[in-house]
Amino acid sequence: MKLHLHPTVEDHRIAWLAAAAVSIHILEALLPSPLPGLKPGFANVITICVLCLYGWSTAAWVSLLRVLVGSLLLGTFLSPTFMLSLAGALASLLILWPMTRLPGRGFGPVGYSLAAAMAHISGQFLLAWGWFVPHAGIWRLFPVLLSFAVLVGLVNGIITQKVVKHLHD
Length: 169
Description:
Elements: H1 9-29, H2 43-54, H3 56-74, H4 80-99, H5 109-132, H6 142-168
């Protein structure tokens, strides 16, 4: 018995956008970092663009595929790095879901990016504290990393806003 898959236009869109996000994710992994895991998160520009253009479910696919495929290609699948990345992605998606369902005009790319960045670092910190380093001292790093997340979220949100505006024009 043969199984015939018939990919939809949406499947192709998700694959292309996830490939773009994975490519950026891998390039970011090559950048030197002052602290382990501290990255500019440019791959999240793709996710927020997808959120603004195609909705939450497509953005969730792109984000989760980026984490999974990126970890497979980088050799970090099921490692602490993968778990932290997944925790951050899930936390971001969990905060973005209700944000996209609020009445009215809602949030724009900058608001989504800021919220996602703060949720991402918060999710990672909760996992790191609860599973890897269950010591209260780890929370001394949180304000510094949250500040970095706000800065990165703002920059990525501005980039996303320009990309989305360009695509709409």
